[in-house]
Amino acid sequence: MNIPVDLTLSLVLLSVLFSFGSSRLPGLIKVIAFQGVVVSIVPLIIGHDMTAGGILFTLATLMIRGIVIPFCIYFAIKKVAIRREVEPIVGYHASVLAGLGLIVAAMVVSHRFNAPSISASVLLLPTAIALLVAGMFLLMARRNAIAMVLGYIMMENGIYLVGTTFSVRALHIVEFGILLDVLAGVMIMAVILQNIKQTFDDVDTALLRTLKE
Amino acid sequence: MIQSILLWVLAMLLAPFFSAVILKVKAFFGGKKGPPLLINYYTLAKLFKKGSVYSTSTTFIFKLGPMISLGAAVTVLLFLPFAGQPPVFSFRGDLLFILYLLGLGRFFTIAAAMDTASPFEGMGAAREAYFPIICEATLFMILILFYVLTGELSLAAYFSGTQPFGMWQMAGSPMLFVVIAFFIILLAENSRVPVDDPATHLELTMIHEVMVLDHSGPDLGFIELGSFCKLFFYASIVARLIIPFESGYMALDLCLFAASLLIVYMAVGVMESVMARYRMDRVPKFLLTSFALAFFATVITLEFLK
Predict the structure, then answer these.
(1) Angle of helix A92-110 relative to helix A124-141, nearest 10 degrees?
(2) The pLDDT value given to residue B38
């Protein structure tokens, strides 16, 4: 049992539950930022041999994940004066219970995989799977566009953890590429949000159905 | 055995003192001097000297309520391993007995409140009946976790001697979540601030206080003493969990236990000073957080133990 890694990963799982329960966008952004930071320090403490380049890439990921992206989103909602409610389709209590359910499911499912580096920590693969599914859940169960973007980022965190599980060597390069994509996505999203806001005076994605040429 | 009984009496005697610590901390945060640390003893003495007034619309249930709630709280303390010493009574499965004893006390408080036929008290009773349902789910989740860790089913087995430290060693980080979950339960069951405000003066927002509005004199004293004992029970469990060390010398253990109790009570006081009471519809979410934490801790621990 690797105590620092397990502690970090249980914090990640806890952040999933808190993100399901938080009703306000700034709170949700803080949770996701915290999750980003915690997820990115996992490779540092998991005990892979790190090269100087690897450490540099990890720190850069930490910066982007924990600081740049959350701040981008935060300023985006500041700028377009979006309503702070995340407008859930599934209520908060049900979401928290669903979160518990999917954590249990992830634990059960992860035993079916025979992942090579699962010995690093028993929680690594379950956390990764839980993050992927939780991100998907946020995408489906919230109508606010920003909350959807945050769900997408959570999925990205999950992919990063899966990467940590399976590969060691090529991880940082690939991950960095993905992260740049996400960053670009967040930038574009900020612009699009402004347009949605201008057209509908709201960022409720359900309104997009009424678009006509 | 004599020692256990002495400790039980000590627990009852100390409970009002520790509750006054909360008042002192709140006064400190408010920049006030606050009431003296013995205020609760003065209040109890004052109440016991008075006579009782009973409304003509009430029945014997109204008189029974305070006695049974005090009796339940005091009986529960019999099972408490004070400072890790063996309790007066202990048997396999006594945890369930304790939980339902507390439930019995609550039931009679609620029944007494309904007996007055005051709409305010009925409202408080409805809330008092609703919130502990979620608390109970959390408590049973924690119970399952402790059972998995120790294979025992009695309070003494969990909290006496070096056992709490053993649980920390086995479970590790999930115990932290258990402590937080238990602290939330403590706040909810003893009607402390984020759930209920003991200092409020508006009946509409009260839970526990509104149910005891019609009690007076010694009856009110019983209720107060009962709630001090109940708070002491929960606080000492949290205290044993946060400082699970054992020195082997009884005097030192008692000091350590008193210090950890002070930490818990001060934490309650700080919570009350920095937080506002939740809106009534937010309370279930707060309690659900504790359930989520306990459930989560159990799941992770099961994974670790595999």
Answers:
(1) 150
(2) 93
- State the average pLDDT over residues B20-25: 93
**Structure-block tokens of residue A167:** 């590969």
Instruction: Kindly report the length of chain A.
Output: 213
User: Does position B281 have pLDDT exceeding 80, yes or no?
Assistant: yes
Of residues B14, B7, B1, the one with CA closest to residue B229? B14
Closest CA to A86 of A39, A149, A134: A149
Q: What is the pLDDT of residue B156?
A: 86
The average pLDDT across A193-207 equals: 72
Q: Which domain holds residue A154?
A: 3-210
**Region A87-103 average pLDDT:** 88
Q: Which residue of A has its CA nearest to B169?
A: A3
Whether residue A50 has pLDDT greater than 70: no
Which amino acid, A163?
Answer: G
Of B173, B177, B285, which is closest to A93 when you measure between CB atoms?
B285
ipTM: 0.76
Question: Residue B76: is its pLDDT beyond 60?
Answer: yes
Domains in chain A, number: 1
**Rounded Cα distance, B85 and A166, in Å:** 50
**8 Å CB contact between B213 and B121:** yes
Domain ranges of chain B: 2-305
Query: Best of B295, B301, B302, B305 to disrupt the A interface by mutation (most A CBs within 10 Å)?
Result: B295
Token pair in block for residue A28: 């949700």
Q: Which of A8, A7, A12 is nearest to A99 (CA)?
A: A12
Interchain CB distance below 8 Å, B172 and A122: no
Contacts of A21 in chain B (CB under 8 A): 285, 288-289, 292
Compute the mean pLDDT over every residue in chain A, rounded to the nearest whole number: 80
- How large is the angle between the packed helices B217-242 and B2-29, nearest 10 degrees? 90
CB contact under 8 A, B296 and A21: no
Give the gap in angstroms from C-alpha A188 to the nearest C-alpha of chain B. Answer: 35
Output the average pLDDT for chain B.
89
Task: Calculate the alpha carbon distances from B279 to A48, A178, B195, B284 in Å.
Answer: 48, 43, 8, 10
Asked if B303's CB is within 8 angstroms of A96's CB, the reply is: no
Residue contact A100–B296, C-beta within 8 A: yes
The yes-or-no verdict on residue A48 having pLDDT over 70 is no
The CA distance from B98 to B290, in Å, is 20
pLDDT greater than 60 at residue B262? yes
Which whole number is the average pLDDT over B97-125?
91
Interface probe with B: pick from A2, A3, A6, A15, most Cβ of B within 10 Å:
A6
Query: Does residue A10 sit at the B interface (CB-CB below 8 Å)?
Result: yes
